[in-house]
Amino acid sequence: MAKVQNFGDNRNKGWCVFCGGPNESRDHTPSRVFLDEPYPADLGVSPACLRCNNGFSSDEAYMACLLECVMAGSAEPTDLSRAKIARLMEGNSSITALLRAARRSVDGGVIFDVDYARVRNVVVKLARGHAAYEMNEPRLDDPTDVFIKPLAMMNEGERETFEGWSGELAVWPELGSRAMNRLIIAGDDVYDEGWLVVQEARYRYRTSVENGLRIRFVIRDFLACEVAWD
User: Fold this and answer.
1) pTM over 0.85
2) Is 214 helix (H, G, I), strand (E, B) or coil?
3) Nearest-angstrom CA–CA distance, 34 and 207
4) What is the pLDDT of residue 223?
5) CA-to-CA distance for 66 and 59, rounded, in angstroms?
6) How far is the C-alpha of 162 from the C-alpha of 159, rounded, in Å?
7) 81 DSSP 8-state letter
8) Which among 168, 137, 162 is positioned nearest to 218, based on CA atoms?
9) Closest Cα to residue 102, out of 118, 90, 117, 114?
C-alpha cells in the first residue's frame, strides 16, 4: 500500500480524531495488535490525545485475543496460530481467564460468549481512524450503523454486497484527501478489488462516500465490519 500525503482541509487536522481533544500522540490505524511484525512501513497514523490513545488498548487486546480463540476453537495460548497473540495471552492472565470462562461447548461445537460492547468500541474506533486518515473526514458523532459479522456466517447476498466493487466511483472523495490522491497518483491499480490491503491475511479496508461515509474492513480474513455515518 503506497504512502500518500493528505492535502485535505486543514480544519480537519491537528486534533484527536476520537474525541476532539488535544493532539498529544499518534495512533496507528489499524492498531498494531491486529498485525504481525514486520509492520508495514506506511502504516497509517492519526492525531490522538493520550487518554484516547491509551484508553482503547485493553479492548483492542481483548478483541485480538478473542478472534484468535474463536478461530482456533480454544482459549489456550498453545493452540493459537498467531504467536504474537499467544504471547499476549500468556502474559495477560486476566484476558486468558476471561476467554476461558467465555468458551462453551454447545451441540458438539464451540462458541464464545462475546462482550459485544468492547468489540463495538474497537470497531468504531478503527472506523474513526480510517475516516480521518484516508478520507480527511474525522467523525466524532455516533455512527448511524455498525455491522459486525464473521464472513463465514454471511449469506451469499450479504457477502456479495460487502465484498462488491464496481471499479467505478459514483462519488469522489474529498479533494486532497489520501483516498483522492491514491486515485490520482497511483491509479485504480492501487486497490485490490476496491480494498486496500494493509497486511495480507491480517487486515484490509475500504472507504466510500456513497450514501454517506462508510468504512469497511476485514480482520484476519474472518471478521467483517462496516461503520456508517449518513
Assistant:
1) yes
2) strand
3) 19
4) 98
5) 10
6) 5
7) S
8) 162
9) 114
Strand pairing partners for 6? none
Which of these, 35, 49, 41, 62, lies nearest to 138 by C-alpha position? 49
Compute the distance between CA of residue 218 and CA of residue 201 in angstroms, rounded to an integer.
Answer: 9
Evaluate whether 130 touches 208 at the Cβ level (below 8 Å). no
- DSSP-assigned letters across all residues of 104-154: EEETTEEEE---HHHHHHHHHHHHHHHHHHHHS----SPPSEEEEEEGGGS
Q: What are phi and psi of 125, to 5 degrees?
A: -60, -45
**CA gyration radius, the chain:** 18
Chunked into runs of 10 residues, the chain (230 residues) has average pLDDT values of: 62 88 96 96 93 97 98 98 98 98 94 98 98 93 98 95 68 67 60 80 91 94 97
For residue 156, the tally of other CB atoms under 10 A from its CB is: 7
Contact 224, 134 (CB under 8 A): no
Listed residue (28, 78, 30) closest to 202, CA to CA: 30
- Give pLDDT, residue 177: 72
